[in-house]
Amino acid sequence: MGIRNKLFLIFLGTFLVLTVAASGFYYLSFIRSLDTYLDERQQEQVERLAEHLGSLYQQGNSWDFLLNDPRRLGRLYRLAGDEDAGRGQRGEMRHLQLLDHNKQVLLGPPAPPKLRTEIAIEADGRIVGYLTHPNQDAIRDKLSDRFRDRQQGFVAWMLAVGVGLSLLVSWLLARHLVAPILALTQHAQTLQEGDYVSRLEDHRRDELGTLSRQLDLLSERLEQGQQARQRWLSDIAHELRTPVAILKGELEALVDGIRPLHLEAIKALESETTQLAHLIDDLRDLALADGGNLRYQFQQQDLARLITDVLESYQHALAQHHLTVTADLPDVAIASIDPVRIRQLLDNLLQNTVKYTHDEGQVLIQLKPQGNQWQLTLEDSAPGVPDTALPQLFDHLYRVESSRNRRTGGAGLGLAICLRIAEAHGGTLKAEHSPLGGVRITLTLPGEFA
Fold first, then answer.
1. For residue 101, how far is the Cα from the chain centroid?
2. Cα gap 328→370, rounded to integer Å
3. Under a CB-based contact definition with an 8 Å cutoff, are residues 362 and 324 in contact?
4. Integer Cα distance of 218 and 222 in angstroms
5. Which residue, 3, 112, 286, 448, has most beta carbons within 10 Å?
């Protein structure tokens, strides 16, 4: 059974129970209230009649004025409050009974003792007789039965209308509540089929509206992921095609005898092969890092010493470009790191500096404590990067220059790998403009302070 039918039955059952309960309560309450009202009204009316009869009895000191004219009791009763009470189907007060002071019947039909009420008639401070009247259960007649029948008919119509409204409201509520669920189901099916462009755009402010907006965000993320994956595959294909094309061209030239086979030609082939192997290694590392499968072996290391070793290994490359290096490092900087991965990060940063910084430029490296972290800053001089390029420097295969010159651009994977390494260490990596005219890369890593 679908959720719409379940909700319909739940709402319908609830409304029917409420309708039946309300109708039954109304009927019982009305009938009981009516009987009580009629009893109290008759009681009050008979009490006024008893007072009037006491005054008349006192004038003649006997009941002859009623015994000689029995219909006078009915006229007096009507004068006491209800002109229509004794007419019609009931007759002339055939339910009232007059008793003397010994409770002997003087006028009126007998009534069941358990269902009648006796009201004393007093004259000169003594009881001279009694008026009795039955309650509503004893005097209910055809008129009362017809009234009850009309009330029952009204309750039946009210039940019928209640059932009809319950059916209508239950169906509308079930449809209203299930409509967004069906829309969510259909949208999820479109996502399952690979269509990430469509959106629900539900402006409801309830939980279903929140779920719709979350599903739209998921669609947007999936669409962005699909586009990024397509760009990623396209860029990888381009990056691999370039060295392979160069190798193929060089080999074809050697085979055709266009270029002689000598040591320089072999070195050129080796260079392209090394570049291709480096690209493949970077792709593998980045794939492992994105999947959280790049292995790390953390240990207590002196970060300042590690930076010094990396700088010493780059002295020759820096000197070739006449780059002036200024290092501001503490004597000791203990941190829990994977020295192999942090060295890989530093290698990538220094390689970019050597590749991009103009000759006779400046390089500034500074390591200092920042709270409970170590903050490493690497700055270089011109050229810089546009403002729009800064947030994208750590994206896969992103390079600032528009061309794909492999001599300067590399594959655009180094900084993406650096970001994954920093995040795996619980740190951060960000890029901003440097006062020297180039780029400032700031790395933060959790430190070990005594």
1. 82
2. 15
3. yes
4. 6
5. 286
Return the SS3 of 444: strand
**Cβ pair 385, 393 in contact under 8 A:** yes
Tokens coding 438: 């180039």
d(CA 187, CA 199): 8
Token output for 89: 């189907």
413: CB partners within 8 A, 6+ apart: 279, 282, 283, 286, 396, 397
CA–CA separation, 370 and 379 (whole Å): 18
374 forms beta bridges with: 369, 445
Give the amino acid at 351.
Answer: Q
Fill in the amino acid letter for 234.
S
| Lookup: tokens for 112 | 């069941």
Contact 216, 201 (CB under 8 A): yes
Q: What residue has token string 């980045």?
A: 286
Does a cis peptide bond (omega within 30 degrees of 0) precede residue 383? yes
Is there a contact between 379 and 439 (Cβ–Cβ < 8 Å)? yes
Across-strand partners of 432?
440
Closest to 97 (Cα-Cα) out of 118, 83, 114: 118
Secondary structure (3-state) at 314: coil
C-alpha 30/C-alpha 25 separation (Å) is: 8
Closest CA to 154 of 143, 146, 142: 146
Alpha helices in 261-358 (DSSP H): 263-290, 303-313, 315-320, 339-356
Q: Is residue 131 packed enough to be buried (19+ CB in 10 Å), middle (13-18) or exposed (0-12)?
A: buried
Mean pLDDT by 10 residues, the chain (450 residues): 69 77 77 74 80 83 82 72 44 66 80 71 86 67 65 78 81 76 79 77 74 81 75 68 76 80 78 74 71 77 91 89 91 89 88 88 91 91 84 68 42 74 89 90 82
Residue 224 backbone dihedrals phi, psi, to 5 degrees? -65, -40
384 contacts 314 by C-beta, under 8 angstroms: no
